[in-house]
Inverse folding.
């Protein structure tokens, strides 16, 4: 067994915890909307068809912000199809996911859902098959109190008060050749800049996200951000980043190191933003919206799209089943996001229900939680106050993809209001436990520590509808040792230790 030493001092702050770090994503894809968040006729459905069992789970998950309605879907979406009397809404082909969109759920249903879930909506506009005018129309529908065509239509549709959505994405993954209306960086940067300028004529206080790269492995990565920001720097507040990870060819060691790529991704994007800032002699800093991240096994049968004349409604798509190692990686990615809280001011785990999701539902039936639910929920609940640097001294472990990486990765938060310290850690060893010492300086323990750990002798264990709780975070034995705490992290584990500081 190896040793790791973490040094924590509440004076060494990185930045405040950004509550928007704990965002999620609802896309019209597979069963995320239909039989996910929305299922009229389900025993738990409210009068609008919103599944209240899902709403309760969303609250437990601690989600703060939800991006909608896509994703690839948004690049072919006509938002007007999804408002007004249900029986008059058209059925359309959804080209992104080779499905039929019934439009029974649209902007008004989403806003009602967001309100009930207690989350901030983050809207995306279609800059694939549409452009400035349609973005303006949607903004008018959502944010203008009344007295104009689209705002009065919203009122006629039952929403007297404007939704006042602050956070908007200017399209989705426009760097990806798979995207409807895919553009070059120059073309997209200009369109994004013009759309942003026009949207700010309605509401100057919007927070706008320009599309960055769909992954650090994109051939245009780096150049894309540079070119887009040269066009749109003054008009936007965020640049997006998207990343999905999975275990490939049985290479668990590299998979457990996925946060190394996320660190690299964020550092590269912020460096590019700051390069453009310098070139433009601007005072403004652009933040990162990591608005799609997760584990996704995109090569599995679950992600195979319907074909030919088969255009199903709400088919089961991307319904990945997650194991314990996947949950450890999710916990590790949250550590990376928190560590970058000075520049990552928003993030969305993709997605919320059924589609690569922590929450699974049976049509007409039960709800169950995947393994990945737990590290997200615990981090969202307990990462409060200031993010602290948590430098780790430990042995390196070898990975195919990233070379030698520290076997333990960690971040901490400290809430100056309550004095509560929370330390989030992963042991990325595939086969060895690590004895961890958490050394405190600049503060003393003001009470006993407690901890939880997520691991299992069989890291391939997956939750199911019949058993989603026999492997869940369990109590971690944390020993006080002078100004240090000691605990043991099993191989392939995620853990959280909490301690009140005086
Ligand atoms: O989250 C699934 C898909 O992944 C999204 O629609 C798209 O933006 C990304 O490629």
């Amino acid at each position: 067994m190896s040793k790791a030493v973490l040094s924590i001092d509440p004076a060494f702050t990185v930045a405040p915890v950004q509550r928007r770090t704990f965002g999620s994503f609802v896309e019209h894809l597979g069963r995320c909307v239909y039989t996910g968040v929305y299922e009229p006729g389900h025993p738990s459905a409210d009068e609008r068809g919103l599944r209240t069992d899902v709403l309760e789970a969303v609250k437990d998950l601690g989600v703060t912000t939800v991006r909608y309605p896509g994703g690839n879907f948004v690049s072919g979406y006509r938002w007007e199809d999804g408002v007004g009397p249900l029986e008059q809404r058209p059925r359309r082909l959804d080209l992104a996911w080779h499905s039929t969109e019934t439009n029974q759920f649209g902007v008004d249903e989403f806003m009602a859902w967001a309100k009930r879930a207690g989350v901030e909506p983050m809207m995306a506009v279609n800059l694939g098959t549409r452009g400035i005018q349609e973005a303006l129309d949607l903004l008018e529908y959502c944010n203008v109190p009344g007295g104009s065509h689209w705002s009065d239509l919203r009122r006629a549709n039952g929403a007297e008060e404007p939704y006042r959505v602050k956070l908007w994405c200017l399209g989705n993954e426009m760097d990806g050749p798979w995207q409807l209306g895919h553009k070059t960086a120059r073309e997209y940067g200009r369109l994004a800049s013009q759309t942003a300028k026009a949207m700010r004529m309605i509401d100057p206080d919007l927070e706008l996200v320009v599309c960055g790269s769909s992954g650090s492995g994109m051939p245009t990565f780096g150049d894309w951000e540079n070119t887009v920001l040269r066009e749109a720097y003054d008009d936007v507040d965020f640049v997006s980043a998207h990343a999905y990870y999975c275990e490939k060819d049985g290479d668990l060691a590299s998979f457990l190191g996925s946060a190394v790529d996320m660190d690299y991704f964020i550092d590269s994007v912020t460096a590019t933003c700051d390069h453009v800032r310098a070139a433009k002699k601007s005072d403004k800093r652009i933040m990162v919206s990591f608005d799609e991240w997760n584990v996704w096994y995109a090569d599995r049968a679950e992600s195979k799209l319907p074909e030919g004349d088969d255009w199903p409604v709400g088919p089961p798509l991307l319904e990945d089943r997650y194991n314990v190692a996947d949950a450890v990686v999710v916990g590790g990615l949250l550590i990376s996001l928190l560590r970058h809280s000075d520049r990552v001011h928003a993030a969305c785990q993709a997605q919320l229900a059924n589609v690569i999701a922590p929450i699974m539902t049976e049509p007409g039936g039960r709800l169950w939680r995947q393994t990945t639910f737990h590290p997200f929920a615990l981090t969202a609940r307990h990462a409060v106050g200031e993010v602290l640097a948590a430098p780790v001294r430990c042995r390196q472990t070898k990975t195919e993809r990233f070379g030698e990486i520290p076997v333990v990765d960690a971040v901490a938060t400290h809430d100056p209001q309550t004095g509560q310290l929370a330390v989030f850690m992963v042991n990325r060893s595939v086969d060895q436990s690590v004895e961890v010492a958490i050394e405190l300086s600049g503060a003393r323990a003001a009470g006993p520590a407690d901890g939880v750990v997520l691991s299992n002798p069989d890291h391939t264990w997956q939750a199911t509808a019949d058993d989603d709780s026999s492997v869940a975070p369990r109590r971690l034995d944390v020993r006080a040792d002078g100004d240090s705490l000691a605990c043991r992290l099993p191989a392939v584990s995620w853990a959280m230790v909490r301690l009140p500081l005086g």
